[in-house]
Amino acid sequence: MKIGFIGTGNMGTAIIKGYLSxxxxxxxxxxxxxxxxxxxxxxxxxxxxxxxxxxxxxxxQSDVIVLAVKPNIFDRVIPEISVHYRxxxxxxxxxxxxxMSYIEKLMQKNDVKLVRxxxxxPAMVNEGMSALCRNQLITDEEFEPVLELFRSIGRAEVIGExxxxxxxxxxxxxxxxxxxxxxxLIDAAVSNGMDKEQAKIFAGQAVLGAAKMVLETGIDPxxxxxxxxxxxxxxxxxxxxxxxxxxxxxxxxxxxxxxxxSKAMTK
Length: 267
Description:
Blueprint lengths: L2 E4 L3 H13 L7 E4 L3 H11 L2 E2 L3 H7 L2 E4 L6 H11 L5 E4 L6 H8 L5 E6 L9 E7 L5 H12 L2 E5 L5 H9 L1 H18 L4 H22 L3 H8 L5 H11 L2 H19 L2
Parallel strand pairs: 1-2, 1-4, 2-3, 4-5, 5-6, 7-8
Antiparallel strand pairs: 6-7
Helix pairs in contact: 7-12, 8-9
């Protein structure tokens, strides 16, 4: 099976690298096209994958096509893809705000096999969280290689498309909220005399460890929090300060802002 990538920006490149790290012999099955020919050549030479000189060439040679381009050029790119689409090819879109029905409308075909994915930027370090949904034409056999592709860059879960906006709030945009929290921890540590680079290590590792506790122990986050908060101790003092200043409400408000924006953007 040949997998072609249209667009080799940060996310497209992260997916390619993740897949190659998971499947060391996969380079021969990957193709890429980017309008920036110089950037494409550098990437393909570095990773040992085939570069295509045109989108048409990529479409001709690919079984699965990953659309890793910005949402604002879909109106131009999809009709061009449609001309060269052949029955049985699987289109995979990772664009925020672009629904499957909108892509189907732009394709002007009734036999398009389509998967929509919402990944996030930690895919760049193989710790991504991707949500996948598919249209009714995709079989389980056709869907499995796409799942494998996104599992190679972290975790992947299958959802209904109606949850895509929620996914953007809970995982698509939330790395930025977490970076803000880490940034605040670093700044506070520096103000208390710690070196900034060392503070970054302490804060980053603490967040990484806490996340792994949630994912790997099976213990509810509420219980994990309570277990750390010894009565009269330092942690419960800090947690109470966060709660008293509306920490949970602020997170919920940020989450909802992302969800509402996603709904407003969706075509």
